[in-house]
Design a protein that fits this description.
The protein is α+β, with helices and mostly antiparallel strands. The chain has nine helices and 17 strands. It has two domains: 4-100 and 279-326, 2-Layer Sandwich (Phosphorylase Kinase, domain 1), CATH 3.30.200.20; 106-219 and 227-248, ATP-grasp fold, B domain (D-amino Acid Aminotransferase, Chain A, domain 1). The strands form five sheets. Strands 8, 9, 12, 15, 16 and 17 form a six-stranded antiparallel β-sheet that branches.
C-alpha cells in the first residue's frame, strides 16, 4: 500500500476530465473519455467515480488503478475471449481496436445482493420473484449465493439516467440486438465470469457480480471492450469472512465502489437531485480500497505515476499515434 501522504497530495491533481480533441473524435462516458483516431480508440480512464448513474467526484489514482487492472485482466483472459486492447501507452490510457459497441450490458450475478434501483436484491426485497425472466425462490436472504450464476442484461441509459434490466426475449423483440449477436456475447460473458471467479478464488476473493460490454470489430468479430473485473464493473468480497458475516446478517467485506455508494446511501442520496460533496477522507478511503483490490487480485504492488496527468496523458497518446502511423512496434 502506498503512503497516505501520497494519496493526500494527489487529491488536488486528480484527472477529472480531458479535452484532447486534436487527437481524435471525443466521446465522454461516466468514467472514461474516448478518442477515436482511424481504426484506433484511445480510452482515457479518468479519476471520476460514478454510482446511481451519476458522477460523484474523483478518487486519487483511481484511473491508473482501473486502467492497469483492466489491462491485466485483458492479458489474462485473451485466450478465453478476445478483447479490444492493443497496448497501454500511459498509466491512464488503453490503445484499442475501434469497435461498434453492442447496445446491451451483459451483467452476470452469482449472489442476491445490491442496493441500487436496478439491483436484484432491491427487486426481491420489494416482493418480486422474477428478474430478467428468471424465477427466484422464496425465502432467500440478502447476499445469499444463487443456485447458479445468472445473466441479467441491461440497457445502457443515457448519461445521468438509470440503466434498465431486461430479458433476452425483450431485447430481441425490441430489435435492440439480434439473437445471434446476443447469444454469442452471452456465451462469452459466462466464460469470462467462470474464469474470473476461479482466478479470484485463488486470491481469496469472491467475484460476486460484474458487467461486460462487447463490441463488434470491422471484421464482424464480437470482442469484450471497455473494462473487465475492476472494482467499478464488479463486486468483490473477501472469501474468508463471507460465511461468518452472512450467518450474522452483516454486510460482507468488499473491495469495490460499494464503499462510496454506501456513504451516499447513509446520507439518503440514491441518485436523484444534486450530488452531495464527497469528503476527502472518503476519497482517500476509497483509493485505499481500489489499491487493495488491485494488489490482491494481481499479486503485484501498485506503483502510481505521480506526474501531473493532463499533459502526460496527452503527450503519450500523441506518441502512440505517431508510432502507429510510422508502423513502429
Amino acid at each position: 500500500m502506498i503512503d497516505e501522504s501520497c494519496l493526500s497530495n494527489a487529491l488536488s491533481t486528480t484527472l477529472a476530465s480531458t479535452d484532447f480533441r486534436e487527437v481524435g473524435l471525443r466521446y465522454e462516458g461516466k468514467v472514461r473519455d474516448n478518442y477515436t483516431h482511424g481504426r484506433r480508440r484511445y480510452v482515457v480512464v479518468t479519476d471520476r467515480i460514478s454510482a446511481f448513474d451519476r458522477v460523484l467526484g474523483t478518487i486519487p489514482f483511481k484511473g491508473q488503478i482501473l486502467n492497469q487492472l483492466a489491462a491485466w485482466w485483458f492479458r489474462q483472459t485473451s485466450t478465453i475471449v478476445p478483447n479490444h486492447m492493443i497496448s497501454v501507452p500511459d498509466a491512464n490510457v488503453l490503445e484499442c481496436v475501434e469497435c461498434e459497441p453492442l447496445p446491451v450490458e451483459f451483467v452476470v450475478r452469482a449472489y442476491l445482493t445490491g442496493s441500487t434501483s436496478t439491483s436484484m436484491w432491491t427487486h426481491y426485497e420489494a416482493g418480486s420473484r422474477t428478474f430478467c425472466g428468471y424465477r427466484l425462490r422464496d425465502g432467500m436472504r440478502k447476499n445469499q449465493r444463487l443456485d447458479a450464476p445468472l445473466l441479467t442484461p441491461a440497457v445502457k441509459a443515457p448519461k445521468g439516467e438509470h440503466d434498465v434490466s431486461v430479458s433476452r426475449e425483450e431485447l430481441i423483440a425490441q430489435s435492440r440486438i439480434t439473437a445471434a449477436d446476443f447469444d454469442d456475447a452471452a456465451a462469452k460473458a459466462m466464460k469470462l465470469f467462470a474464469a474470473g471467479q476461479a482466478m479470484c478464488a485463488n486470491r481469496g476473493l469472491i467475484l460476486v457480480d460484474t458487467k461486460y460490454e462487447f463490441g463488434k470489430t470491422a471484421e464482424g468479430e464480437i470482442v469484450v471492450i471497455d473494462e473487465i473485473h475492476t472494482p467499478d464493473s464488479s463486486r468483490f468480497w473477501l472469501a474468508n469472512t463471507y460465511e461468518e458475516r452472512f450467518a450474522k446478517g452483516v454486510e460482507p467485506e468488499s473491495f469495490d465502489k460499494d464503499f462510496v455508494r454506501r456513504y451516499f446511501i447513509e446520507l439518503g442520496y440514491r441518485g436523484d437531485g444534486p450530488v452531495p460533496p464527497l469528503p476527502d477522507d472518503i476519497r482517500i478511503g476509497a483509493a485505499k480500497k481500489y489499491i487493495a483490490a488491485f494488489e490482491q487480485i494481481t499479486g503485484e504492488a501498485f506503483v502510481p505515476d505521480t506526474t501531473p496527468p493532463d499533459s502526460r496523458v496527452h503527450d503519450n497518446i500523441v506518441k502512440a499515434q505517431g508510432k502507429q502511423e510510422s508502423g513502429s512496434p
